[in-house]
Fold each of these.
Amino acid sequence: MHVVIYEGRAWPTFAPLCLNRPVFMLSTGMATLFDKQIRYLGASRITLWVRPELVDFCRTRVIPQLKIPAQVNVPLDDQPALLVSGRTLLFRPFKPPQIECVSTENDMIRIAYAKRPGLNHEDVMNRNDRWLELMNLEQVEPEARMAQSLSDLISWNEESLIEDSIHLLKGAVKPPIAGPFTMLEEEDIWIGTEATIQPGVVLDASRGPIVIAEGARVGANSVIEGPCYIGPHAQIRPLSYIKDSCSIGRLCKIGGEIANSIILGHSNKAHDGFLGHSYLGKWVNFGAGTITANLKSTYSPVSVAMGSRELETDRQFFGSVIGDHVKTAINTRLMPGCYLGFCCAVTGSSIAPRFLPSFTFWSDKGTEPFDMNVARRMMQSSYKRRDIHWTDADERMVAQVQKTAPEIER
């Protein structure tokens, strides 16, 4: 079956994480939305419809990882296609439609099956008549969820972790587990090859599975509560407390207390401080003592500050959304609903603003645009510390975020 994964025009609600990546490349559980879409849609070939500025990203970083034919921003041919929103979160195999049909939500197309030669990514982005006429197809019940914002992915992470562990570890030979540490519900704990668990660690899977990937390291006297995923070669510092529903990406360095948060790869929160109900991009570095509040004193629902708007989450617990390459100084304090855009430096000694647009430097002197030469050197230095080369593709990515972010974050 030909499957088309499209972004659509609602992607800005996933900023700042989607300023430099397609919405379907956001992580949830132990994988990305795209991984789950590939897993359950039964595609024999894939077409990705994305913003023009992300074509390069898809061709260099997504398509090479696929084992089936794939292309980017190519119109439909004369074969029927399953059109799926990139915001779709699947938890089970999708039943292929037998007739042309559509599933909608709030006047948005979630999934459609149709034969429409010439339909293309611009039709979706512009929501023109060619796209909207799909709404007239026979309506079917949805078989999946469609995330509206990052707050949904955070709230659904517990289920996503459980589903991923069941699928990815099904039938796998479980390595032997032994060591001077404590396990509760050992049958739901998976420790990968060359992972290190130091003495005094407590792995508590009584509320959900714990997966510690290959090469990861958990420091002495740490407590890990499931469901939880610790990615390849990640480091959990001694005396850390990782509460349930956390996804920690590859090569992250984590310390202190974390709850119900998603952290993408190569990010560091290596010191004391609380992180709760938050979503962090790649290459983030928290200074010692950085704290994210995730509950208002009034116990009312948290909204996310974004430019001149307040985006409602309808959730009592919500922390911060933090873009790639954000750096915070020691003792930084972030209030519920903070938005820190791509490549910000947060160095002031008072409570940080709830909204900082991309490429912003905030200090006790106030807010100013980040000097791009300094910002670029900071990003390149982060790569160099991990023996990763800064490439032309990275340079193009920074340029497109510079162009896109002001319009989205106004």
Amino acid sequence: MRKTTIRRIIATTAAMERFWRQAHGWAPASAADLLAAARLDRQVSFTHTLPDYLDPFPAQEAEARLILGYVTLRSLCEGILKLFFAVWWKTYSHDADAVKTKNGTILPPGAISFDKLIALYLKKIDPQPKLFLRRVQQRGNAIHHFTHAEIGSQEELIGDIDQFLKFLLAVNARLPYPDDDFNPARA
């Protein structure tokens, strides 16, 4: 099941990358420009590292591999949220809750911190993945090892990889596709 989950994450992310990097012509130009400049290919590249976290970790590498697994999930979650708000740029840029600089300029999704992306998504779109997103954020931040942070276990990481697929599909279900044949959920 877990390898199947990862294959689905890879296939869905790759299909999203192929579709959204070429949104000119049907998506609003401002959103299409953001998506064309985004490094969605790196999202795909990160998904290909997920199988590295399934086999038991050697004892001397266990904590580092666990943290790196959560850094990977953090990056994937952050990337999918940035993709979401880039796709919905026109709507987001007119929202009163859009993230702004001190002088009032609306920040594009690529410039928004993961923390603010999570808060915006939970408030405006779906509060359900709160515990998952905050756990991934906290454990991914353990890469900064000057202070103690809870990193969980390998089984929890594997469970969160499974949870990421659900989150990925939920976000994808909220994206507009001009024709259902292009929908990456069918990947």
